[in-house]
Amino acid sequence: MKNPTIKIQKTELLSDNWYILNKVTFDYQKKDESWITQKREVYDRGNGAAILLYNTKQKTVILTRQFRLPTYLNGNETGMMIEVCAGLLDEDHPEQCIIRETEEETGYRLTKVQKVMETYMSPGAVTEILYLFVGEYNDSMKVSAGGGVAHEEENIDVMEMSYDQAYAMIESGEIKDAKTIMLLQYAKIKNLV
Question: What pTM does this model have?
Answer without folding.
Answer: 0.92
